[in-house]
Structures are given as C-alpha cells and as structure tokens.
C-alpha cells in the first residue's frame, strides 16, 4: 500500500513529476474552481494578452460548480464535473503553467500530451460525493466571472482534499482503456 502524498499549491515541477498514477493525494492550500465557460474566458484572456484573475503557474483548478451554501456553511455540495468538458481549453492552460486539475472521467489525447510535455497531472475525486467533499473546503470566495453564477471562478482554501492521480506527467493513466473522447465518467 502506497503512502498518501500531501500536496500544497503552488505545485513545483519536481513535485508534479514525482506523482505516479494511482497515488493517493491530500491537497491543502489554495485551489481555484472553473468549468466550461470560465475556461473559455481564461483562454480568451490569454489570447488577448490580458491579466488572468489568478496566477496559473503551479495552480490547481477544480472542475466544480458548487451548489449554494446553506446558512453557516462556506459552500454547498462541491462534487467534480466531468473533466472531458474542459478538454478543449486545458492544453492552453497547462502550457501557461497550470500544474494540476481535479475532476472525474477521461481526458482526451491532446490533454494527455500536454500533461507530458509541460509536466502536469490530472487528479480524480469521487463523483456523487459533493456534500462529503465540501467538508474539506474551509473558505470560498468568488474571484472572477461572477455573472456565471455557480460556474464563476472561486478561490477555495482546502484542507486534506482527497484525490487520486488519474493521469500523470509520464503518460500513464489509471484507466485500462482510455478512449480519446468518450464524455463518460
């Protein structure tokens, strides 16, 4: 049984390159949320040479659109979104310093190639367990694109957020057969 690895962003190249498929990780620190429309805006900002709402270098993006927080809670249920929805945008973000993503399901070949080329990983966490995962989020604030509602970019402070390395920076995957684009999770 392998030892659980602790990750604290921003992630360095040596930390990312040390991660192997199947490694269990606990993430503590600042991570960012972003889904489809936020990814599109981030890529448009890069293309236009505009400043991004957060530093991509070493960052972790969690593919989530959390439900509204109940009174006294920092966030509502915060389960992962199907990762393939971000496949169009992920290679550009990885090329600009993004070092890890958290979601669920398969990634396409272009994303897997970018993970290898630039030294990044894709982490998977438990779909359908949004209420449980939200217990690892100790603070949340909307950082950008508030008009997107639940899909706005949020800055999250997480403690021991559980995930598994599903795709490593060496081209390996936990999935036996990894179709380029299935949309399944």
List keywords for this structure.
alpha/beta, five-stranded mixed barrel, fumarase, 185 residues
- The helix/strand order is EHEHEHEHEHEE
Query: Which strands sit side by side, in order, in the main sheet?
Result: 2-3-4-5-7
CATH architecture assignment name: Alpha-Beta Barrel
- Which spans have pLDDT < 50 for at least 5 consecutive residues? 180-185
Q: What's the tally of helices?
A: 5
The named CATH superfamily: Fe-S hydro-lyase, tartrate dehydratase beta-type, catalytic domain
Helix content, binned percent: 10-25%
Distance between the termini: 25 Å
How many domains, as an integer? 1
Number of strands: 7
Could you walk me through the main structural features you see in this protein, from its secondary elements to its overall organization?
This protein is of the alpha/beta class and 185 residues long. It has a single domain, classed as Fe-S hydro-lyase, tartrate dehydratase beta-type, catalytic domain (fumarase, Alpha-Beta Barrel), CATH 3.20.130.10. 22% of the residues lie in helices and 25% in strands. It contains five helices and seven strands; from the N terminus they run βαβαβαβαβαββ. A five-stranded mixed β-barrel has the order 2-3-4-5-7. The chain is globular and about 45 Å long. The C terminus is likely disordered.
